[in-house]
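WARN no homologs supplied; continuing
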Amino acid sequence: MPPDKMEEILFTKMHGIGNDYIYIHCPGGVPSEISELSIEMSRRHVAVGSDGIILILPSDKADFMMRIFNADGSEARMCGNGIRCVGKFVYDRGLTKKTTLLIDTLSGVRTLSLHPGSDGLIETVTVDMGRPSTTDRVLGAAEMIEHPLAVAGGEVRLTAVSMGNPHGVVFVGSLESADVHRLGRELELHPVWPDRANIEFAEVTSNHSVSMRVWERGSGETLACGTGACATAEAAVLTGRCHWPVKVRLLGGTLTIDKSPSGTILMTGPAETVFEGRYTRRRSPNRNN
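OK structure emitted
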């Protein structure tokens, strides 16, 4: 029996306030069996460990394209923390000299403003996340604002906000007592969503601040979610709980969310490089390559 083939993959581990991904520059296109690779590399303790893989690709309508694969192999449309790290990745490595970038995503083209630090490397990034929607990606309702949903053991009131990907925001009196894992899993899979959803549990702490925990579809609870922070801020203002701008405090750090005069959401936060490495992938010779 012929031996397995060995393939080396160059990668960079990065995170935005704890939302960590494996970044792979792919000028030649998407690697084969990428969903399987994301599952393999994302395993914590026994592999690199991450919330998934983000590919940085060429684009014919923007400076770069990003594609996101969750830890379970499913593809995501957009990631606010992830796209900030894409901006840092391409600038710090000399792939661009621009501090204003267009990044192509499955949710459309997003504009990034890069903010270098004193060492010339990118410290923070502001992303124009586009317009939020309360009518996109919800089944059976024109919109869902403080909408009652039956769950095991009771009822929750949920506000649905799309940031190019679906979010359900539940306001709670205390994050400490919120059953994030049980309710997050149940609400992620609720039939109201065409293709599952990210679920945010939010505690309002002032007119301009919210604390939040997030259950991400395909990944479970994570330290942070950029699109989730945007959706939560929009829901907080929409329901009269907060006013712009809104600081959203997540387990991994804080994001500042504001609304532009044109109605788009602006998200500002840090992006950090953790380490670079080579991953050896064993590939059976009888696989189709």
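The helical segments are 34-42, 80-92, 180-188, 226-238.
OK
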